[in-house]
Amino acid sequence: MALVVAQEVPTSSSMAVPHGPAGVGQARHRMREQLRSNGVADAVVDDAVLILSELLSNACRHGRPLGQHTEVGDGDVRAAWRVDRTGGLTVEVTDGGGPTRPVPSTPSVTARGGRGLNIINALAREWGVRDNSSGEVTVWAQVAQENGAAGRTGRGPDGPDGLHGLNGLDGLGGLDGLGFDDVG
Questions:
Q1: Beta partners for 143?
Q2: How does DSSP classify residue 7?
Q3: How does pLDDT run along the chain (184 residues), one tens digit per residue?
Q4: Which DSSP letter does residue 129 get?
Q5: What residue ranges in 76-147 does DSSP mark as E strands?
Q6: Fewer CB atoms < 10 Å away: N or C end of the chain?
Q7: Cβ-based neighbour number of residue 146 at 10 Å
Q8: Residue partners of 56: CB distance under 8 A and separation at least 6
Q9: How far is C-alpha 168 from the geometric centre of its chain's CA atoms?
Q10: What does the radius of gyration of the chain's CA atoms come to, in whole angstroms?
């Protein structure tokens, strides 16, 4: 007689997103729907969706599309998220690499952009960058399970860097005019 033990399977999803603003709303909608249907708290879902938007906009602005020799195909970036057995949520976006390394900037108060990684740093428990041998770059973020800064380490791609450089986040004006007006 065989004994079968039921085990909860982690929730995960991966999708090709067109390199450009067109697919961002679709990716956000799919993530929101899937996470909510799996019982993830609304505050965590909201943070994850904002992080996904920022990662996708950075990939489209600074990275190249994935090449022909990937499973996603030419002209796309890859968005993925997973909830592990402990309830931890990780969001990832993979592109074909670019001329610069993803690092937080310190934009002026009037700058129209440059706040994306600072937003991610404020919302994520930790985040980082992974390069592979074919030139693909994956930026990942672990979403904090609690709402608010408690429990967040403020770690960036290369270690602790606090929550400095967040001037001007109150209006999130850097997202205006980028085609990301779909809220859900």
A1: 89, 124
A2: -
A3: 444 443 444 578 999 998 888 889 999 999 999 999 988 999 999 999 999 999 999 998 888 999 754 444 458 999 999 998 888 899 999 999 988 888 777 767 776 766 778 889 899 999 999 999 888 999 999 997 754 443 444 444 443 333 333 333 333 333 333 343 343 4
A4: E
A5: 76-83, 89-95, 124-131, 137-143
A6: N
A7: 12
A8: 17, 23, 24, 27, 77, 79, 93
A9: 20
A10: 17
Identity of the amino acid at 64? R
In angstroms, the CA 45 to CA 139 distance is: 18
Q: Which spans in the chain are helix H?
A: 24-37, 42-62, 116-123
3-state secondary structure of 90: strand
DSSP state of 86: T
Contact 79, 14 (CB under 8 A): yes
Question: End-to-end alpha-carbon separation of the chain, Å?
Answer: 49
Residue 89 phi/psi, 5-degree rounding, is -115, 125
**DSSP letters spanning 140-171:** EEEEPSSSSSTT---EETTEE-TT---TTTTT
* Amino acid (1-letter code) at residue 96: G
